[in-house]
Structure formats: structure tokens, C-alpha cells
Amino acid sequence: MLKHAEHLLQQYFGYSSFREGQKEIVQQILSGKDTMGIMPTGGGKSICYQIPSLVFEGISIVISPLISLMKDQVDSLAQMGIPATYINSSLTIKETRTRMSRLAAGDFKLIYVAPERLDSWDFLEGIHGLKIPLVAIDEAHCISQWGHDFRPSYQNIRTFIDQLPQKPIVLALTATATALVREDICTLLDIPLNHTIMTTFERKNLAFQVLQGEDNESFIKNYVKKNNQEVGIIYAATRKDVDSLYNLLKKAGVQVAKYHAGLSKAERTRYQEDFLFDRIKVVVATSAFGMGIDKSNVRYVIHYQMPKNMESYYQEAGRAGRDGLDSECILLYSSQDVQVQRFLIEQSTEMSRQTGELKKLQAMVDYSHTESCFQTFILNYFDEFPNEDCGRCGNCTDTRDSIEVTVDAQKVLSCVMRMGQRFGKTMVAQVLTGSKNKNILKFRFNQLPTFGLFSDQSVKEVSTFMEFLISGNYLAVEQGQFPVVKMTPKGKAVLLGQSKVWRKEQTSIKRLGKENPLFSALRELRQEIAIEEGIPPIAVFEDQTLQEMCTKFPTTLADLLQVQGIGVQKQEKYGARFLEVIGHFQPEDVGVEIKKKVSKDDPLFVALRALRSEIASKEGVPPFFIFSDQVLMAMCAQFPKTLADFLKIKGIGIQKQQKYGKQFLQVLSQYKREDVKIQEVVEETKAIKKPRGSEKTPTHLITLELYREGKEINDIAKIREVTNQTIENHLLKCAEEQLLDLEPFIPMEFVEELQYVAEKHKADGLKAMKEQLPAEISYFAIRAFLVKYS
Fold first, then answer.
1. Residues 516, 506: contact at Cβ < 8 Å?
2. pTM here?
3. Residue 707 and residue 227: Cα distance in Å, rounded?
4. With 70 as the cut, is the pLDDT of residue 700 above it?
5. 193 near 186, Cβ under 8 Å?
6. CA distance between the termini of the chain
7. SS3 of 484, please?
8. What's the CA gap between 379 and 373, in Å, rounded?
């Protein structure tokens, strides 16, 4: 049965094997055991019921909390040829009846419903007599009173299952559940606790970071603009904050959507669809957004405020990188976040649950202030204790220098004391910046020695610095109707000169992802197809699949089936169009290299090694002194026939050609090229690790410096740990800036041919030009000619 399931996984989803946890859950379900699966967001929970539903006879029911999720899942399944539907309040009575009729006729393998639908007599009557082998409960933590998103309607699921004529297999799935919640789920759904399959909560592609004392609005604006090609979600705690950030980004020229309960249903639907269909890259939203969004290519999630508990935070942050690609999760912490969340808990939570919720809030405060690994802190919260830190979060990778700000801190602390510790952060900042508003004059604060000490800064900048002092416990905020700032014992020690204050340099905003022309071209084609078919782009292919196309560089329809995420149906439907785009590029154009490898058991390779050993023995040197295995493999792949051909093999210079060439040619002459089995292996080239010189020096100018020192392109590439292609690009850029003459790189004996081909085929692209020219003219030579003479 499992083999059949794996076959279906490859056929429909394009994956050769199940992920960690998926195989164990599917195996347990296929053996008839009720199961609880705990997998992080993006872990592939939906596969755990979608594949068994294809294996089982009859129709499986999926109980899901949000309407939008149902539609996204059903649309995605339809793209793969899997018959599924949903019944919810978005349908008319006529549409519901039509779907129920088709359900009875056996047209579907999966049906998605909300838990409230289980109370409908019409629905229960409609499924009566149907074979229901599996009931899957998504977001199962909603059934537990200890869960972070408790929904009373979930508690009717057990009654519904008990009423079915034949007991189905029950599968409960969730991404965030503590030990207490897991036990509660099993008890309420009558699942044996030892039937729980739990993978690690760790998301190895996510980098977590907490920033304190930042100008949050400026940070968000700069971050979004720098990553304008990437998809992101920004969460805020209140509608007011959502509207404010939305207007900020829109004014900055960012195409942005917003989402909160204060918008009309039509507005929410429009914004959500713009986001899903990639018409808009960024959405600012309250926590109401995202739980039902099946969008895998979110590259970053930013929390404008601290959420109320770790479960909510990890679930929301976990919406980044669901396709497995590297993504960022940034929390912008401010001391007032605690008061906001405390207020929201008191307003929206029953008294009996408030103590537990406030305890969870404190855990979020602790997380926001920890100096240890963020990922480890999260895992510990969920009762998981890794042996080592993640090595990728903000704390693990923080290399910023610290700057002493003791004097500035003393100015702030002195001002707070002189104002009697009776005012809020803004009032203190106004005094320090020299504001002359009526309240300052009323209290005669303009006469204080600290008045105007920061007159060269704005109130917002000083408030941000005070946030830093609050987060470091130099100042405390006394909560009340009008929160006031007070000095702490730690702050007093600073004011008295007994300790110093150090502050990390401002966080630098990095650009996510790599620039790759092929990836951009594939994304454009995906968007074009999505518009034609009226579906979200990721329903065509996910980013991960496009990335793998760039690295595997498929050239045939059969090759496409080796790319993760491409099944037979999508191969037949879209394959030719994507291959056409890939055909316009060369591997070296997009940072990959196709290496030809030969098996070490190949007869020719064995013979060449034998000759090498013989020569090494005579000369009394190690065999690799003669030629490395890599050079011998290159001989097998390139099959040189003359001494001149030997010089084209990397690793053979004139001296070794003259010394050993004839002996190796004699061995090669005893074999035929077609008898050598050559495997092409695509390898991604290294990215730049550490630029030489100052970080402020543009990277192409560093290359120019090395070139002027007399170094060849190969040597520069090795020094800078990049490809020759990258160095060539740097030199071309230098020429465009009139810093370098490209003539040495252009074979002057072919200038006339280059001129003729450029005039005839330039519009057709580099590949078309290369095909019309002699083989010895490289792509770089063509590009150099075009830059110099166009």
C-alpha cells in the first residue's frame, strides 16, 4: 500500500519520496490507525490526507477552519488532476445542492468543510450512505481549551464521527501544540496518545530575528523597498496600525494590500486575491489574515508588534518559506507591545483563561529579550531540546559592533529624574529635543538643564533611543491609563557613572534571494500562465520548483520529471513552454556549471589510471603529481585526439602535454568515444563570500583592481571564490563605465565576422550569435565586442 502511495505522490505531486513525518503518518493511516500528526507550518501536512484519500475507496472529509484555505487547496488539487470540492457559506444554495449531488455520484475523492457544517442536517443527510474512509481535522489545536485559537465548534467533531454508520480513520493535524494541548486533542478525539507522530518543530530554512530600539516605520519601509521582488507579510496588532503602515508603504510607492476585520467582505476578498495572484507582493494585516492562505513563496514575515503568545507567533512567522527556500522572520519589539497585548487579552478572553494567556504573553516577552539562539528558545517552548543552536538566527549571526552610548543614556536618565518620573516617553523626548509646546512651558520644563540636549534630533529618534533603554532595563514603563517612564536600579548605576551602556550598530537590511536571469524569466512565464488560467502563480509551479529548474537545467520533457514538484500532468501541460524559456539560456549565464563525470569503473578511466601509476612508479612520485583523477575524467569526457587537444583540458599545461601527452594518447586510441559512459552533473557555482577591500567599494571595482595587478580572469575568480562568468560581468561593467578597454578580450582576427553576425542576429540573443561563429569565439568575447562596438 505504501508503494502505491509513493507512486501517487510522484504521479500527481512530482515528489519522489515523502518528507520527514509524512511517510510515518501516511503509513499509519493506511494501516487503519487513528493518528495525530504534529508538523511545523510548511511541513507538508496536507499531503498526509490527500495521498491516503487517493488510495482509499470512497470520499475523505477534511475539516478546515477557513473558507479561503478550502478554495486554495481545491484549486491546487484541480491543477494536479485530483477531484476535490468544498462546501461552505460562500456558495449559493443551488451551488451547494449541485456539489452534494456530484458527491453522491462519486465525482470527488476529497471534500473540505468547516466544523460548523457538521451541524447542518442537510449536509448530514447528503453524506448518509457514502463510504467515508478518512476524516482529517486540520488546525486540530482549535479543539483544545489550552490551544491558542480555541473554537467551540471544533468540539462537535467527535459527535459527528460517532454518528457515521461506519467508523472512519481519524487524522488530527496541527503545527503548534505544547504537550498539554497534544494530550487534550488525543483525549477529545479518542486517539491513542502513542499514535502521535511528531517531527521536529525546527524550520531549517527560517532565520529568526528580534530588533529593539529601531525606528520601526523606517525599517519596514526600507526593508520592503530593498526586497521589492519578494513576497512578504507584515503583521500588526490593531486595525489602526494596519491602516497606518498600509498608507506609509503606499505613499512610498510600494504596491501593497491590507487586511483586517474592519474592511468590507468585498475589500478583503479583493486584497487577498491580489496577494495570492502576485499582483501585489506585500500585505499588511492583523492576525485574521493568513491562517487560510495557501501561499508557499512568502519570503519574509515581519511582526510590527509582539504577538500575544508563542503559538500565534510561530504559526504566523511560519507562513514564510513554506516551499523550503530561505526566508526571514523579523519581530520588531517595543515595550508598549506588552500593554497592547495585555489589553487585548483582557478584552477578548474569558476570565478563567486569562491567567494562562498572561503566562504565555510573558514567554513572548522573554523571547524578545533573550540573547541566546531564537530557534532554540522556540523549540524549548514546544518541549523540544536540540543539541546545538541553529547558527542562522539574528543572535547566532550578529556581528555588529557595539558603540558606547553612556553619555546619551545619562542625559535621558537625568531628564526623567528631573521631570519627577511622572511623564511618558513622548513628553521626555520633547523636553530633550527642545520642544516649546504648551505643556512643556506649562510645567516650566524649558528651564531644566536637560532641555534641548538633543536639539539636533527628532522626537521620534529620541523615543527610539528610549525604547532601547527600556528594552535594556535602564528605564521601566509603569503601566496605567497614562504609562510613565521611571529609572531602574540598573539605570541609576549608569547615571552615577558606575556602569556603561553599549548599543549595537543599526541593523543593516539585506536583500533576500539571488539575482538570476533565468529564475526571473521563469517567474514571468509562470505569471503569464496564471493570468491565462485565472489561478495563483504558485498553482502552476512553486518557487522551489523554478529554482530547481535553474540548477538542474532540464532540456527534455523527461528531464522535467526529475525536478521536484513536477508530476506527469504538469509536465504535459506546461513542460514545453518552460523548456522553451530555459533554451534561451546557457548554464554559465545563470550561475550553474555542467560537469561531465565518468564512473571510476569505466574501462578507459581504469586504463588511464594504470598508465598514471606506471609513470609515477618510474619517477618515484605520487600518482596525483602526474595528473589528478579530475584531469583523467576530463580526458575520458573530452577524448583528445591530438597533442593540441590536450591543452584544452583544464589541468594540463605545455610541460605536461609534452612530457606525457603521447603516452596517454596511445591509451586513448585503443578506445572509442561512444563506449565511454558520460554523466552530466549540474552544479551550482559559489556565491561571493568576502569581497576584497572595503565593503563600501563596489564589487566590480575590486575585480578591476586585481585585473590591473596583472591577474588573469581564472586567478581573480579563485581569489574571490566566484565563477569566471561573474568576473567577466564585472569587467564588462567597468568597460560600460569607461574604466577599461575590452580590446584584449576580443579576437581581432574575427572582428569582421563578429560585426556581420551582430548586425544579423543580435536581436535573437547570444546563443543564436554563438551558433553562427567559430567555436573558439567565447560568449565573453561576443559580449565584449557588443559592449565596445555597439
1. no
2. 0.57
3. 32
4. yes
5. yes
6. 64
7. strand
8. 10
